[in-house]
Amino acid sequence: MSVTTYTVTGMTCGHCVSSVKEEVGEVPGVTGVDVDLQSGRVDVSGDSLDDAAVRAAIAEAGYEVAA
């Protein structure tokens, strides 16, 4: 299992965290999503993670992955 960390911009509240967790959690292979609202850090764990799919899920939730 691997963990990939993303920095997500635009999250401001608990609802934002829930949206990101829900969308990213639906990506195939994802087994866990840990979101730190303060820093914007999103740790995604799972097997054979599809980076593009995780990024698309974050965008689908309405947020951006910082470069």
Blueprint (SSEs and pairs):
Layout: E1 2-9, H1 14-25, E2 30-36, E3 41-46, H2 51-60, E4 64-65
Antiparallel strand pairs: 1-3, 1-4, 2-3
Describe the structure.
The longest helix has 12 residues, at 14-25. The model has no long low-confidence stretch (mean pLDDT 96). Helices cover 33% and strands 34% of the residues. It is of the alpha+beta class and 67 residues long. The protein has a four-stranded antiparallel beta sheet, with helices on one face. It has one domain (2-65): Alpha-Beta Plaits.
Shape: globular
Discrete helix count: 2
Q: What is the chain-wise order of helices and strands?
A: EHEEHE
Oligomer: single chain
CATH-defined architecture: 2-Layer Sandwich
CATH fold label: Alpha-Beta Plaits
- Please provide the count of β strands: 4
Q: What does the largest sheet look like?
A: 4 strands, antiparallel
Find the structural class using helix and strand composition.
alpha+beta
Indicate the percent of residues in helices.
Answer: 25-40%
CATH level 1 name: Alpha Beta
What's the arrangement of strands in the largest beta sheet? 2-3-1-4
Give me the Rg, rounded.
10 Å
Mean of residue pLDDT values = 96
Instruction: Identify low-pLDDT runs.
Output: none
Distance between the termini: 24 Å
Number of domains: 1
Quote the beta fraction. 25-35%
Protein name: Copper ion binding protein
Keywords: Metal-binding
Organism: Streptosporangium canum
GO molecular function: copper ion binding
Key features of this structure:
single chain; 67 residues; alpha+beta; Alpha-Beta Plaits; 4-stranded antiparallel beta sheet; 2 helices; 4 strands; 33% helix; globular
